[in-house]
Write a structure and sequence with these properties.
The protein has 12 helices and 14 strands. By secondary structure, the protein is an alpha/beta fold.
């Protein structure tokens, strides 16, 4: 069945480039385009596309508010397009709260003539979005309610910074909670990380498929909501109990052992080795390095996401004596990565998203 797409961008050139990329796939057909959010809302109501690609920065009605109207009046899988800057990152995180399925980073700003270099990513994400379970997006009711007014209003902003958390238990640890997620992951992580207690007796390492420039904002936002300290990982960070480290966009994250003052310690190592399974950071890369160091002291968690990243890594962790949790299909936005775990018989527990944090605490 052909996936019918509405392409929305204020640039005629960008509309043409994106449309050509999508139409080059026989499974996808661009049925129309729109130059601003207001026209997009009207065309979604009239044409009922399977997927919408929606630019953030547009005149008349911007992408964020158009998204709110679409999700309240005619829920449709929407992929946001964003420039790689701090504002773009924050708008993208807000878009997830309004109900966006996924996002695509424009390679070189608002007008990106080099979109061809991410053509496969665009087509893959559109196909995944067409299969997304919209009921599992968990977009906020207050955003939907406000969007029905059809009036422009100031953007709701969420604090993304908070004072450093005081945690006297930040000791070196031999217990690891390792989380992997992709499509739908930012919202899923907001349902898990803030529910973990401040005295969690494990270090937490997260790989969320995101490009450079976005994971820092995600970490800051989660930090403002959580009892645990949450931050984007840096090369050389020590693995400590009660600290959540998120792999930075466009970097693989590994854990290595080094001698410091005569003691063996574990720390973060970042690199830009080739993408694996088309992604960087890659869940498998992290999990492969954890298995030989932590063995049975690893609890791995695979949340919503397309593809099968994490399956190989979880298998290594299981062989080393560790455990695995997979998110249940009924709560996933895209049941890909958890499905790979379940199909291989690797999951010790299969639970819906709302039960993941409690299950983590039980198994830790």
């Amino acid at each position: 069945m052909t996936i019918r797409v509405l392409v929305v961008d204020d640039s005629a050139l960008m509309r043409k480039i994106i449309s050509d990329i999508l139409n080059s796939d026989p499974e996808i057909k661009v049925i129309d385009t729109a130059r601003n959010g207001q026209i997009a809302v009207e065309k979604v109501e009239k044409l009922r596309p399977d997927v919408v690609t929606l630019d953030h920065e547009m005149p008349v009605l911007d992408g964020l508010h158009a998204l709110g109207y679409i999700m309240s009046e005619c829920p449709t899988p929407v992929i946001m397009l964003s420039a790689a800057d701090e504002r773009g990152a924050e708008l993208t995180l807000n878009a997830f709260e309004y109900g966006a399925v996924d996002f695509i980073q424009k390679p070189s700003g608002t007008i990106s003539l080099d979109m061809g270099q991410i053509a496969e990513e665009i087509r893959t994400k559109v196909k995944a979005a067409a299969r997304a379970q919209l009921k599992n997006l968990h977009f906020m009711e207050e955003h939907v309610k406000s969007s029905k007014t059809r009036k422009r209003h100031s953007e709701k902003t969420i604090p993304i910074s908070s004072p450093p958390k005081s945690n006297p238990r930040r000791i070196m640890t031999k217990k690891i909670l390792a989380i992997g997620s992709s499509t739908g992951g930012p919202r899923a992580l907001e349902k898990v990380i803030p529910k973990l207690p401040h005295d969690l007796k494990a270090a937490v390492l997260v790989v969320q498929h995101m490009p450079a420039g976005f994971t820092a904002s995600l970490a800051q936002r989660l930090n403002s909501q959580s009892e645990l300290e949450v931050r984007e990982a840096k090369d050389g960070d020590l693995i400590r109990e009660g600290v959540v480290l998120i792999a930075p966009g466009d970097y693989h994250m590994e854990v290595v052992q080094k001698m410091i003052d005569g003691k063996t310690v574990e720390m973060i190592s970042l690199n830009k080795e080739p993408r694996e399974l088309g992604v960087r950071p890659c869940v498998n890369v992290l999990f492969r390095t954890l298995a030989p160091i932590y063995g049975a002291n690893i609890l791995s968690v695979i949340l919503t996401g397309m593809g099968m990243d994490g399956a190989e890594g979880v298998e290594l962790i299981k062989n080393a004596g560790g455990k695995a949790i997979a998110e249940d299909e009924k709560s996933c936005v895209v049941y890909g990565m958890p499905k790979a775990i379940v199909d291989r018989g690797l999951a010790d527990r299969v639970v819906p998203l709302e039960m993941v944090a409690a299950t983590i605490q039980q198994l830790i």
